[in-house]
Amino acid sequence: MRFTDTIDRLRGGLIVSCQAYPGEAMRDPRTMAQVAAAALAGGAAGIRVQGIDDIRAVADLPVPVVGLWKDGESDVFITPTLAHARAVADAGADIVAIDGTRRPRPDGLTLAQTIAGLRAHTDALIMADCGSLDDAVAAEEAGADLLGTTLSGYTGERPKTDGPDLELIELIAGRCTRPIVAEGRVHRPEHAAAALRAGAASVCVGTAITHPSTLTSWFVDGIAEARA
C-alpha cells in the first residue's frame, strides 16, 4: 500500500490489536484471525498482530495490517532487530511496528540503520513504538512513517499513566509531523476520543477489546471490592 492510501485509511479510525500472551488459550494464529475478523465486522480500520504466523493469517484482510514480532528477554523486544523487521514485512504486514526507542538494540544497529535496512528490503510502512518525546523526534528523523505511544510508561522516561498518555500525544503533535498512533492503556471509548483530540491520527486498542482474561479480572476485582 502506498503511504498516503494507508494513512488515509487509518486516519481518525481504530486499530485493534489482536494478541495473546504465551501459554494462553487463545495463543493460536487461527484464533487471532477470527478475533481480527470480528473486530473488522465491528468497524476496525486496521489490525495489529504479533508473530509471523499471525501476520500471515490476517494478511489478506481488506484493511491495513500492522505486524510485529515480540522476541527475546532484553528491554528491546518489539521487532528488536533488522532481521525480525524484514521477516515481518515478508509475512505480509502493510506496516512493520518496531521498537522506536533510543535504547541499544540486540543486533547493534541504530534505529536509523534499522529503518534504512528495512526500506531497502520492502515498501511496507514503518511504525516506531516510542516511549517519550525524544524517542518520537529521533524516530521521525530516522525516517519512521508513524509514531506510536506504545511504550510510554515502560522505558523509565515517563510515568505510567492511568489511561493513555495524553500529554505525550500533545508533545509529539507539537514537535513532529508524522501521524501519531495513540496506543497503550486505552481502556474506554472516552480514552480513544481524548487521544484523537490530543492530536493522534488514529488509536490502537488491544487489551480492552481482545484480551478476555484481563477483562474478566477487571469485573472479578470489581465484585471482590464490592463484597469487601
TrEMBL record:
<keyword id="KW-0413">Isomerase</keyword>
<comment type="function">
    <text>Converts N-acetylmannosamine-6-phosphate (ManNAc-6-P) to N-acetylglucosamine-6-phosphate (GlcNAc-6-P).</text>
</comment>
<comment type="pathway">
    <text>Amino-sugar metabolism; N-acetylneuraminate degradation; D-fructose 6-phosphate from N-acetylneuraminate: step 3/5.</text>
</comment>
<protein>
    <recommendedName>
        <fullName>Putative N-acetylmannosamine-6-phosphate 2-epimerase</fullName>
        <ecNumber>5.1.3.9</ecNumber>
    </recommendedName>
</protein>
<dbReference type="InterPro" id="IPR007260">
    <property type="entry name" value="NanE"/>
</dbReference>
<dbReference type="Pfam" id="PF04131">
    <property type="entry name" value="NanE"/>
</dbReference>
<dbReference type="InterPro" id="IPR013785">
    <property type="entry name" value="Aldolase_TIM"/>
</dbReference>
<dbReference type="InterPro" id="IPR011060">
    <property type="entry name" value="RibuloseP-bd_barrel"/>
</dbReference>
<keyword id="KW-0119">Carbohydrate metabolism</keyword>
<comment type="similarity">
    <text>Belongs to the NanE family.</text>
</comment>
